[in-house]
Amino acid sequence: MDKIKRTKIRQLLDDGKVGVEICVKGWVRTKRASKNVAFVALNDGSGIRNVQVVLDTEKFDEEFVRKINTGTSLSVVGKLVESQGAGQSVELVAETIDILGEADPELFPLQPKKHSLEFLREIAHLRPRTNTFGAVLRVRHAMTYALHTFFHEKGFLNLHTPILTASDAEGAGETFKVTTFDLDNVPKDETGSIDFKQDFFEKETNLTVSGQLEGELAAMGVSEIYTFGPTFRAENSNTTRHLAEFWMVEPEMAFYDLEDTMDLAEEMLKYLVGYALKNCIEDLEFLEKRELDEEKTKPQNERNELSLLERLKFVNENDFVRLSYTEAIEILKRSKPNQKKKFQYLIDEWGADLQSEHERFLVEKHFKKPVILFDYPKEIKAFYMRQNDDDKTVGAMDVLFPGIGEIVGGSQREERKEKLEKRMAEMDIPAEELWWYLDTRKFGTVPHSGYGLGFERMIQFVTGMNNIRDVIPFPRTPGNCEF
Ligand code: 4AD
Ligand code: MG
Question: Which CATH number is 28's domain given?
Answer without folding.
Answer: 2.40.50.140
